[in-house]
């Protein structure tokens, strides 16, 4: 009887450890699914700057023209900001480029619904349609300009980024707004925590897009950040910002393994 009890306790402890362990390995992505794609932003993609994810200048942030605005069904109220997708034109020989090449894009914006138009004629981003409004240079890599809209196959893929996660600290003494960019792996993040050299770890709340806020007074302290991706993997960077950091500065931390 005692041995059975010990086995049960050992099993429970093992399950508890598994539930609290860090997720090993790398983000693996998802299966192919169907959607449609259009384009916006002009031939130089200048019209894609800014956007609902808060990334601002997509060139200086490293995203370039490899970006897309997601429909309501994919945007997930901003939770999908930073996610990466592989997309290729599908089943439209008239408009798809030869060989159906694929592109890799990062979600940086929201394609709002247009309920004044039917979903199959102008209201391309109306729910529940999965839809990508691509930066124009990316659309032209998979289809002809005259097509306007094409059916596509898409799948989530790991984000491959140069360098580390970037933390841009904005706000003022009693309001810290941290923009988190250049996230590898899953790309989209579900939790951010901050720790000052004189504080414990504190959860930040999502303000909008990938802007995360804390109302703690952190001026004059070195700062550490902990970022959790949608795949539950966590990246922690200690003392990434020195005690004399200033609002408006950007600091680079440890990125996820890909």
Quick summary:
The protein has helices at 2-20, 72-75, 136-142, and strands at 33-40, 67-70, 84-89, 102-110, 131-135, 150-157, 165-172, 175-181, 189-196, 202-203, 205-208, 211-214, 223-229, 234-241, 250-253. The chain has 258 residues and is mainly β.
- How far apart are the termini? 47 Å
Spell out the helices and strands N to C.
HEEHEEEHEEEEEEEEEE
Give unreliable regions as ranges.
1-23
Percent helix range:
10-25%
User: Tell me about the biggest sheet?
Assistant: 6 strands, mixed, barrel
Beta-strand percentage range: 35-45%
Our Rg estimate from Cα atoms comes to 21 Å
Q: How does the overall form come out from the CA principal axes?
A: elongated
| Tally of helical runs | 3
Structural class: mainly beta
Give the overall pLDDT as a whole number. Answer: 91
Trace the largest sheet across and list its strands: 1-5-2-4-3-6
Q: Please tally the β strands and state the result.
A: 15
Describe it.
Strand 9 (189-196) and strand 10 (202-203) form a beta hairpin. The strands form three sheets. A six-stranded mixed barrel has the order 1-5-2-4-3-6. The model is unreliable at 1-23 (pLDDT under 50). The longest helix has 19 residues, at 2-20. The protein is mainly beta and 258 residues long. It has helices spanning 2-20, 72-75, 136-142; strands at residues 33-40, 67-70, 84-89, 102-110, 131-135, 150-157, 165-172, 175-181, 189-196, 202-203, 205-208, 211-214, 223-229, 234-241, 250-253. Helix content is 12%, strand content 36%. The protein contains three helices and 15 strands.
